[in-house]
Design goal:
Largest sheet: 12 strands, mixed
Helix content: 10-25%
CATH architecture of the largest domain: 3-Layer(aba) Sandwich
CATH topology of the largest domain: Aminopeptidase
Strand order of the largest sheet: 1-3-4-5-6-17-7-16-13-11-10-8
CATH superfamily of the largest domain: Gcn5-related N-acetyltransferase (GNAT)
Order of helices and strands: EHEHEEEHEHEHEHEEEEHEEEHEHEE
Structural class: alpha+beta
CATH class of the largest domain: Alpha Beta
Number of strands: 18
Radius of gyration: 21 Å
Number of helices: 9
Amino acid sequence: MSCSVRFARPEDGEALLSLTRIPMRGTVSVSFPHNDDFFAAEALKGRDLKHFLWSDDASGEIFGFGLRCEKKVYFNSQEVTAEYLGSLRLRPEKRWSRALFRGYELLREYDAEHPAPVCFTTIVSDNTAAVRVLEGGRCGLPLYRPQNRFRTILVTPAAVRADTKKTNGLAVCRGTESERAEICEFYRRTARHLDFFPVFEDDHFPAQLAASDFLIVRENGAITACGAVVDPRKYRQIHIDGYAPWLRLCRPAVNTALALARGPRLPRPGADLDHRILAYWCISEDGRAERFPVRKRGRVIYWKNMPKGAPPARLDALLRAAADAIPRQSLLMLAVHETSRFFPQLCRMTHWGYDSNLYTVSWPDRPTVDCANVPYLELLEV
């Protein structure tokens, strides 16, 4: 069966909405259905959005799509316009067919006319088929260069309060419009040492956020930590499609154990996850932007020289404030890179977690690039 590849048009919105309901299979199968307006939900991911889609030549049915967009981010401590690839969805019977490579051909032609200094993407680590195909760089695919992994943390407010320490000497409050310039200056000063952290341009907050969405941690009057609590369900959901057979059978017992440990319980299949995102979270580290020292042995990571003092206390204060800002039954969600100095601190909490591989992407005729700083992943924009 022949297919065509083209960029999406406004009238394709309804067909693309149906494709967002395609589940990602794994131990926990999930999908990310968008609400009524597909393009409004996707607009959070960046600017100059180009959705390339596949359609059947005979029936005209759209059976897959992907996204290429631009983001103004920090990379290697500089402001750059980066290219982001994401939202790849294909009906199961079409995955890894010739259609995938034709989509990348269209992407390469567009990229030649609109080059960017760096391109990045993430792939869920459990998606071994995608990792195997895309890391190979075969048949004209771009080169996916691994940049370690992210852990996505889902934690209950009760677990945050139980697993973090109360902090003295730190004041926590919601932002106000009079503090807008100060908040943006904090991000300009601190976030430039985090690769792929979004740039706040012209003192404007991303994703149409207001100053009151931000939680501010102050120490001796100065902002030392900041983050916004956002309800992403206004735009898209996390839908639980099902569980692996063994987990489906064990779910009642697992939920009982998680309840005793204040952990997030496994929702019933067919439910939407009640969650909030701690977005744009950033902690002042007193000028220390180096990667956290780690030792690796296969896929197991060991941490040493765990930092103590002010930076961990600032994160604890921000997490406790975020837990107080969301409903008791909701989950708080954030992502952290495995080389971050805060990775072990976050992983000590009772949580769900899943890993995603980070890649910088380049075509064979372009130079490859690596992250010099600790990478950051904004869950609201992926």
